[in-house]
Automatic annotation (TrEMBL):
<dbReference type="InterPro" id="IPR050563">
    <property type="entry name" value="4-hydroxybenzoyl-CoA_TE"/>
</dbReference>
<dbReference type="InterPro" id="IPR029069">
    <property type="entry name" value="HotDog_dom_sf"/>
</dbReference>
<protein>
    <submittedName>
        <fullName>Acyl-CoA thioester hydrolase</fullName>
        <ecNumber>3.1.2.-</ecNumber>
    </submittedName>
</protein>
<keyword id="KW-0378">Hydrolase</keyword>
<dbReference type="GO" id="GO:0016787">
    <property type="term" value="F:hydrolase activity"/>
</dbReference>
<dbReference type="Pfam" id="PF13279">
    <property type="entry name" value="4HBT_2"/>
</dbReference>
Length: 171
């Protein structure tokens, strides 16, 4: 099966696995980081493009949702979508799947900034050809990014409950 949004494939390596036999949380980010490099390749900011243009992408913010554990030897694929972009930034959304599975094992969204690396890493507008490729990925994005835009936090507790438990300690 071919997935037109697939930008990266990998396999969970033994050194990436924790004491529970699962992929360590940091290595989910590594896989998404490698997928971000593949996204850069896809839009024309591969190694040659970065070098000749003196441009790159820097990550401003990243969020990861850990949905299902995966184990050593699991083949993974990452699919990417552009949720939004402007002259200098891209809101990239990615889902990681085990093999050819249909349900993601993890999701990540990132805010990336286009920078001129030849001028002290200052933000810069995308060149028209790069912007065109980003726009095409945005047009082709699925209507729903299930795990995008989530905020981390605990649900609010009523004040009375919060006050009553404030002075207690676990036994």
């Amino acid at each position: 099966m071919t997935h037109n949004r697939t930008i990266h494939r990998d396999t969970v390596r033994p050194e990436w696995v924790d004491y529970n036999g699962h992929l360590r949380d940091a290595f989910y980010m590594l896989i998404f980081s490698l997928a971000t490099d593949a996204f850069m390749d896809r839009i024309g900011l591969d190694e040659a493009g970065r070098s000749s243009r003196g441009r790159s992408l820097f990550t401003l913010e990243a969020h990861i949702n850990y949905l299902h554990e995966i184990k050593e030897g699991t083949a993974v694929r990452v699919e990417a979508s552009v949720l939004a972009f402007d002259a200098k930034r891209v809101h990239l959304y990615m889902e990681m799947f085990a093999g050819e599975g249909a349900e993601p094992v993890s999701a990540s969204e990132q805010m990336l900034l286009h920078v001129d690396t030849s001028n002290g890493a200052k933000s810069a507008a995308f060149d028209p050809d790069i912007a065109g490729r980003i726009e095409a990925m945005c047009r082709d994005a699925p209507k729903e990014a299930r795990y995008a835009g989530r905020v981390i936090g605990l649900p609010s507790r009523p004040r009375a409950l919060a006050s009553a438990s404030a002075g207690t300690r676990p036994a």
